[in-house]
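Appendix B. One record, verbatim.
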Amino acid sequence: MVGTRWFKCDLHLHTPASKCFKDTTVTPEQWIEEAERKGLNCVAVTDHNTAEWIDRIKEVAAIKKIFVFPGVEITCSDSKVHLLVLFDMHITTQEVEDFITLTGIERRKFGEQDAHSSLSVEEVMELAIKKGALCIPAHIDEYNGLCQVANTLRDQIFNKNLFLGVQVVHEELLVDNNSYNKTYALEKINKYYNKEAVSPAQYTIKEDRLKDWRSVVVQAIKYGKAILTFSDNPHAEKDSKHGLWGIGRRYSWIKMDKTPSLESLRHALLLPKFRIKNDFVCKGKPYTKPDVWFNKIVIMGTEISRSNSTPLTIEFGPQMNTIIGGRGSGKSSILHFIRGVFSKENELASLPTVINEFKNFFKLKDSSNQGVLKNNCKIEIYITRKGEEYILRMQQLQNSKDVKILKINAQGFEEELQEDTISFFNFDIFSQKQIYEIATNLNSLRDRIDDSNSEIAILKKDLGLIERQYLEKSAELRTLKLLVENKGIVNAQIVDISGRIDRYKASGIETELHNIDVYQKDSKVLNGLVIHIEEKSEVFTELEKAVSVEINIDDISEDHKAKLSKMIEAANEKVAKVKSSLQKLKSEYLQISKEFNSEIQDSDWKIEFLNCEKEFERKKQELSESGAFEIEQVEDDISQLRNMQDELFTISETEQVIVKKQEEKQSLRQQYIDKRISITERRKKFLNELLKDVNVRAKVEMCRDIDNLEDQLRQNINIDYGVFDADIDTLVKTWSITGESVESNNDKIVTAIQNVFNGTSTQFYAKFNSRILGLSSEQIDCFGILFPEDKIKLEYKTSSNQWKELSNASAGQKTAAILTLILCQGTTPLILDQPEDDLDNNLIYDLVVEQLRKTKECRQIICVTHNANIPVNGDSEHIIVMDSETKHIEAKQAGCIEDNSIKKSICNIMEGGPEAFEMRSMRYKVSDR
């Protein structure tokens, strides 16, 4: 893995070279083994006023791959203050001893705890700096700490920046004034130094001493010094002697180059907020790699890379990677290759110039010399996902590109995966123009917010389901209303037929008409039961099919067949019995119908019914012969009346159903609104959490995106932009009235459209009215749930701490705010192509750099840039310098900021060279404080 990384460090350790080391039989091998057992990656040998064991420890540590800073714990003259002095890793015992003698300590006193320099703390620090060393005041908040120096002198030392970090012992002192509890601190610190709990009267650390200890910690915080924790390896708990037991009991996590150096340590101390985590705040590992991150890209056989035998390989670390280079170095080409392999060019569709530029790059070279791909050129992107390694391999064929997704298995072999697994490697890639486009259309942020939030995705899925149910319910209601439209006609027909039948009754057939009507109604009910039984008997057949699944013994592995066969056979037999029982039950059920029908035919009721029919026929014949009326007319009217009455009954039932369905439809509309409210609230919550502690904040106004309202209106009415503008504007203004609820606004639009559709209004221009009249009922239904999208407003904090709405900001301010939002959002890899364009340096530092530092803790960043603030103040873990002096695209060097060659490249490319940088620095003449 390339780039800086975290090391578990204990940089205050003693060996038997210190006379106060208790067990003098300890060997260098035992010492290093204990460091390894405690999980330390990096240590410092800092014996009291001696360097005797440095070379011996370094020799053993090299085998165990533990990094060792040579050092010494110098006792300074004033108040016997202890100072850790650390040298670069190549420094030897002899060189450290030469330094010790320069401080005025005689060789005969080497290793003695009570030996001390003749120089003051300040003088020792200045001497150490001249010799290229780093100073760390040891245990500043206890005995022999910097607390022993007078307060005014301490201020002078702190102010001169002779050191960048301090070792602190007591967490109780490392709090702000509002949280500091003197009584609690006294109790905890006295327990720290005493094996037994003591009462306040027995305290050895009194209030005056505690005040001195606390004051030096407050000074360290005030001056922004790195707060470090180391063990000073005691022999045992609360033991003043040194020994193996204490190695690594206290430690600090320090982010340094993969091969630590004193310069790397210096850089870490310069940025303690991002590169130092003491064990007060971090007991476990300080950093977890993201689920997905790019390891490297390998480019072979393209027009701008060298031959296949020397492919271009660019490695990436899991945190922040910065690609820099002069004009024409091809730094942005790396990102074009990544975009092309993943086919992410569609994201540029709204930017014609940008997408054309990309398409002219990522294609086979044509007759106009556009395109960088060749036949059979190959691009490989290596990716880590959830700890497993993958390769995306693209090969350019004559007319297409072939992309294979390969997984590297435990044996190191490649397994080809299905093409759709490419979705596993989701990432974000933005050019500066894409970012600016978002800045000029804030509501396009909605899709990005929604896509990155699983809760919103679920809510929107529910919203879609409610919408379908609402439209289905609307269609169902329209069908039901058609069924009741003829109610008036049916009533009129019933009155007409009933009048004729009343005349028949007056002729002397009333009794017979009544009797035959009653018997026929009863007969209909009885026949219905028989029909119902015959229809429902199929339930048994379906149930039989449902339970017919058996366990196939052949599906069981050969190893287990013998043990399971009897149980499987028994289960299958039971299933067969159930199937047989269902068949029997079906027969019994059908027999009910047969027996019931037979009993009815043999009943007294049937005999009376037949007699009634005979009497009715006799009476009809008698009346027919008398010439009163035609008997066929009587029967037709009676049959028609019965049908009309049945139809009226059905209509009445349907009307009741309509009332219920209307309530259900209204309930669905309210559910739709409630779900929209939930989405709005979730968007607010998401943005508030996302933008916490940054200089950008967001507001979400529910259903206030007027542009989206116009989009929906035109879509529903099926009209293009540029036509019916005045009519659409009338509808839009109906909604844009403030103070109205979303339900009320929707009601106004629905009423206006519905009235025109029903022909009861002509409030719009004639052609627009005609367009509405031409809509289908299904299209009209859609207006009932027409609610525009939420409107998103962004504000950013100005240098004067005032909040300013982004719509009133400059192009650079808008871009900076949106870039901050993009950086806050998501955990997938983020690739940025020169995002700082249009931004001035104070915006880059105040908004962008600060967020880059936070974002890289949870997602990989790959950024092409020409602004020094990003790699330097953003503390990029890995910097790739592209070569601008070759016709091919290739990396000149790669490393981290503490690498001298990388520093020189940054200065030359981004600052105009050391002379220009120094001249600007002198002309600025910015005071230290």
